[in-house]
Amino acid sequence: MSDPDRLKRVDALLDGLDDVLPPPRVRAQLRLAANLTQQDVADAVGVKRLAVVRWELGKSNPRRPQRTAYIHLLKRLAERFPEAAELDEGMPTPTSEGGSG
Q1: What pTM, to 2 d.p., does this model score?
Q2: Alpha-carbon 93 to chain mean position
Q3: Which residues of 23-42 are buried (b: 16+ CB within 10 A; e: fewer)?
Q4: Would you give per-residue pLDDT tens digits along the chain (101 residues)?
Q5: CB within 8 A of 11, min separation 6: which ones?
Q6: Extended beta strands in 3-70, E state
Q7: Exposure on the CB side of residue 77, measured as CA atoms within 13 A
Q8: How far apart are CA 55 and CA 45, in angstroms?
Q9: How many CB atoms sit inside 10 A of residue 1's CB?
Q10: Do the Cβ atoms of 61 and 22 come closer than 8 Å?
């Protein structure tokens, strides 16, 4: 396989990630970084506040067309608040040492 073919396959793989939501905790962190309420997000996306609560708790995920709008909002927030898009340091990582936590 040639390098251009490999690059096209990588691009296709990444393009498929456009519809992937960040983890629930990051969704909430992004909203909070922008000082937005759950009601603000609900109004912008076109759902009830309870739907945003459930999305941020990981109890459910948005369906189309709200999913597209919500992902767009999260991506724009991540651009403006990149530090909020990262999982906090309390999350376990493959390189973290053992112990209670």
Answers
A1: 0.71
A2: 18
A3: ebebbbbbbebeebebeebb
A4: 788 888 988 888 777 667 789 999 999 999 999 999 999 999 999 999 999 999 999 999 999 999 999 999 999 999 999 999 887 544 433 333 444 44
A5: none
A6: none
A7: 23
A8: 12
A9: 7
A10: no
Tokens of 74: 């999260």
| Residues sharing a CB contact under 8 Å with residue 40, sequence separation 6 or more, in sequence order | 31
Looking at residue 7, its amino acid is: L
* All domains of the chain in start order, with CATH: 19-85 (1.10.260.40)
Distance CA 39, CA 78 (A): 19
Quick one: tokens of 98? Answer: 């053992």
Distance CA 45, CA 24 (A): 16
Could you tell me the two tokens for 89? Answer: 């340091």
